[in-house]
User: What shape does this take?
Amino acid sequence: MNDPTLRERAKIRTAGLRRLKRVTRIATLSTAALAALFSAVAARSTPGHKSVRPVHVAVHSSTIHSSTPPPPALPSEPGSASAPPLAPSQAPAPTQQPPVVVSGGS
Amino acid sequence: MNLASAAFPALGSTASICVTEPAALEDARGVLEDVLADINRACSRFRDDAELVRLNAAVGTTVRVGETLFEAITVALRAAELSDGIVDPTVGRTLRLAGYDRDFELVRDRDGAIFRASFTSVPGWRHVCLDATARTVTVPPGVELDLGATAKALAADRAAAAATAATGSGVLVSLGGDVSVAGPSPLGGWSIRLADDHAAPLDGPGPSVAIHEGGLATSGTAVRRWRAGAPELHHIIDPRSGRPAATPWRTVTVAAGSCVDANIASTAAVILGDEAPAWLSARGLSARLVHTSGHASGAGGWPAQAA
Assistant: This one.
């Protein structure tokens, strides 16, 4: 390493490595900045609150979401969430008994 | 059979309980009061501490709710499904803009000459998401729930069933005229007078009917009314217009297998207007419909003597 030519070559190589390191750092920083810039642009053009929520259909025993409306009411088991309104087994009858309450608007 | 009864103000209306075993009245009343407190805490639109108020404020987020509110919303969505969206719990926003934005006594006493109502379209019940496993509800932006149509009837059904289970007595519960009965009925059934206003006297004119089971509900436009400038408004919203229903019926009374089902049908009938008799008959539901002219008619096998 006492050879002047070798020392000169070593200096040149060290300087080259420094330049390469600087270029790499600049490239890394530029990439990060560009990524941040594009992310911001993308976020602004499609904000989260525009997302479409799933549509509720009906509730049985677990979550039921659907993007289509539920089918029209179909015959189903009494007591289930979509069972049609039940008629009483005994229809109301006229009576002369004194009433215990009044059913009316409220 | 001796009956015993009690009545007291509740849910902006009147709660009545009647039992076939007089000794059971105190316990039965206690059960009713517990159910009412539970429903009110969960479903009121006007109490700051009510779960529904918090849910309506948390638009766009998924909220875990208590069992009572979850059941009340499930019942309200079932009502919407069964009525093809005619009885829709997402009318809350337009009802609020129309002026029903506080306890009804305050709405009624407000200066209606100054107040101006506005209306908005009803988003529709299908936008509400329930997860039964996690017991969560998601209400999207723009949607406010109002459970007034079905929560009272649900409370009546719950209270009647719980009171008879607790006491063994036959029980009738009436909440603002929405009636549920459970357990053994008196000889000849529970006699109920029909009127425009549930606060009408027991010995006033009009027909009475007897029921042995299930429920009986009356919906009408004659009582819960308020002024907004020149027009008078009422609380039954037609989700197709977002406004109080334009209906030929003053009141509709329906008997069904439960008070909730009776209430769904009576509310739907008011909104459906001229289509109501056919809609009720197709579902085998007996009903009495009183026209705004005062003429009463029956549908679905309602006894002619009680029309």
Summary: Residues 4-306 of chain B form a domain with the T-fold fold (CATH 3.10.520.10).
